[in-house]
């Protein structure tokens, strides 16, 4: 021990294997236990301060606020990443999206948005050059059910894409459907609780789901999709994807536009009715995972075109809905889908747990040229998603290969559960884990383009948006469904509501009628006949009745066995 201490004083190898020169906090320490990556983005040096996502930090002194005195805004991703890690410096299955499959691939940019140069709208580097390729990892999932649940269940499907860009990671986290149940993140735990099993019986029920929905009219647009065949995609390859939330693009001048993201499968779109899904489930409850894996293994690589809708960044009083409302679709005739690139999935994971189960996404993971809108669901998800990953995978989840950016990372974040290297720079003084410092610590990145600085003036409040218009687009979707899709929608709703409390089913009939009179009329007729013991044309047996029948059938049809 005395020999090691003497060597430390002389500046040679220390007992921990580090090379040490000098003494005190002004020394530089490098060696074992550190990990260096020399790749840097334009304007970065080896000692540029970054986030764990590899995003260069140009301002490490101030949170993002309304005016320089505040209040702070929730989408302070840089601050939230920093403080949440700090909160966990001293030393489970996903709550949602537990069941999933994934694959690696590449995104190839077109260099344009529609027919215009993309630089007009965004300075994000991955989009700028025609043919520019960015590695990606995609995780598909169901939402409300557990990790080993059948892939035929009625549920939205998650569609999360991690872009490993030269400026750090960008996560585009969305679903297969373009709308959501709610417009404010305050309601997200309530929504998920209603879809999860009863805390007493541990059984899911249509009554619980529709009890929440009938008191949340904004959810009707989602109901028009989810309880139709669109609620059961045939597989992951043949489903659309959407960012759902409204984001912003920011150009080199700091000017911004609102943007929505959409993935269009080049394999076409296929959905299943409930009876079709049940038949598949009886044979294979992993069919979607198997389908994706086997097509990639055979070299039949699935492809999606990324398309965006663009809108000026203002309130748009001419619209009958708020463009930041996640329960609404931007009409394509007014805001066309403009192609910006194509994604190809061409490599299966080598280990499911390491790459798919431990992959972690967050809506706040943006690169320069991409920004947040004031979408209240996006603002809430930005904290929740990354915070969930720190709880689920661990404080240092961004050091895992599947989550780590493929570029230079240098942070002052230290320790925490499962830290297996230090995010340090070559020749950095490892005694210095703070900034600013005059002792060879990390430094802020240079600012290459102006920040987008939207102006805000208003009272802080807790209120619902003005233009709710909960029924118009839901009714339009009902009328756009083909006849067999409407039949399936009614059938599935009758099955879920036939045994529900009348207060719930009556409210649902009223809400459906508000969307379209035919929808309400058919639902009411279907419920009346189902409760009368008769099977209505185009309506199904109640879920409760089917469940009870299955319980009795299991005992009645089972084969006796002798004890051993």
Summarize the entry for a quick read:
Strand 4 (112-113) and strand 5 (116-117) form a beta hairpin.
Can you lay out the helices and strands and say which pair or pack?
Elements: H1 2-10, E1 18-21, E2 28-31, H2 77-87, E3 100-109, E4 112-113, E5 116-117, E6 133-142, E7 157-165, E8 168-175, H3 188-195, H4 206-214, H5 220-226, E9 241-242, E10 247-250, E11 256-265, H6 274-281, H7 287-297, E12 303-312, E13 338-347, H8 352-357, E14 370-372, H9 376-392, H10 472-480, H11 483-497, H12 502-515, H13 517-531, H14 543-557
Antiparallel strand pairs: 1-2, 3-6, 3-13, 4-5, 6-7, 7-8, 9-11, 10-11, 10-14, 11-12, 12-13
Helix pairs in contact: 2-9, 3-4, 4-12, 5-10, 11-13, 12-13
Active site: 97, 175
Protein name: Catalase
Family: Belongs to the catalase family.
């Amino acid at each position: 021990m005395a020999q090691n201490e003497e060597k430390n004083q002389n500046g040679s190898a220390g007992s921990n294997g580090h090379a040490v020169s000098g003494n005190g906090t002004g020394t530089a320490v490098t060696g074992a236990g550190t990990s260096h990556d020399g790749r840097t983005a334009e304007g970065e040096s080896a000692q540029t301060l970054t986030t764990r996502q590899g995003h260069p930090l140009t301002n490490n002194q101030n949170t993002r606020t309304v005016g320089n005195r505040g209040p702070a805004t929730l989408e302070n991703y840089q601050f939230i990443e920093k403080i949440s890690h700090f909160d966990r410096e001293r030393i489970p299955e996903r709550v949602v999206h537990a069941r999933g499959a994934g694959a690696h691939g590449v995104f190839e940019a077109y260099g344009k948005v529609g027919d215009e140069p993309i630089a007009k709208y965004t300075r994000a580097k991955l989009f700028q050059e025609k043919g520019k390729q960015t590695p990606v990892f995609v995780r598909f999932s169901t939402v409300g059910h557990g990790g080993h649940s059948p892939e035929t269940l009625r549920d939205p499907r998650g569609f999360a894409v991690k872009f490993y860009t030269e400026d750090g990671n960008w996560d585009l986290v969305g679903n297969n459907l373009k709308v959501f149940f709610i417009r404010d993140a305050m309601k997200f735990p309530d929504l998920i609780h209603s879809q999860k099993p009863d805390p007493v019986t541990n059984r899911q029920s249509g009554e619980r789901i529709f009890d929440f929905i009938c008191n949340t009219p904004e959810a009707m647009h989602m109901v028009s999709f989810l309880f139709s065949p669109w609620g059961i995609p045939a597989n992951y390859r043949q489903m659309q994807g959407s960012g759902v939330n409204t984001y912003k693009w920011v150009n080199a001048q700091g000017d911004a536009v609102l943007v929505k993201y959409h993935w269009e499968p080049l394999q076409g779109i296929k959905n299943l009715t409930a009876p079709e899904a049940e038949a598949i489930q009886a044979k294979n409850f992993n069919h979607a995972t198997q389908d994706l894996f086997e097509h990639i293994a055979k070299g039949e690589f699935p492809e999606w075109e990324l398309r965006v809708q663009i809108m000026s960044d203002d309130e748009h009083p001419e619209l009958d809905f708020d463009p930041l409302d996640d329960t609404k679709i931007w009409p394509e005739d007014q805001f066309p889908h403009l192609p910006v690139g194509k994604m190809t999935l061409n490599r299966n994971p080598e280990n499911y747990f390491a790459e798919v189960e431990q992959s972690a996404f967050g809506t706040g993971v943006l690169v320069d040229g991409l920004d947040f809108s004031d979408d209240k669901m996006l603002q809430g998800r930005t904290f929740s998603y990354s915070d969930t990953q720190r709880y689920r995978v661990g404080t240092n989840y961004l050091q895992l290969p599947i989550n780590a950016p493929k570029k230079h990372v240098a942070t002052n974040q230290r320790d925490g559960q499962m830290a297996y290297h230090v995010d340090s720079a070559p020749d950095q003084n490892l005694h210095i884990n703070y900034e600013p410092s005059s002792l060879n610590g990390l430094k802020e990145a240079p600012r290459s383009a102006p920040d987008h600085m939207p102006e805000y003036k208003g009272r802080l409040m807790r209120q619902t948006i003005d233009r709710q218009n909960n029924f118009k687009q839901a009714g339009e979707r009902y009328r756009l469904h083909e006849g067999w899709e409407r039949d399936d929608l009614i059938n599935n709703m009758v099955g879920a509501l036939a045994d529900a409390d009348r207060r719930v089913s009556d409210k649902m009939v009223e809400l459906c009628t508000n969307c379209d009179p035919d929808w309400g009329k058919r639902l009411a007729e279907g419920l009346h006949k189902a409760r009368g013991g008769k099977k209505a044309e185009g309506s199904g047996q109640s879920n409760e009745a089917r469940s009870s029948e299955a319980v009795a059938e299991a005992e009645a049809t089972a084969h006796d066995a002798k004890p051993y």
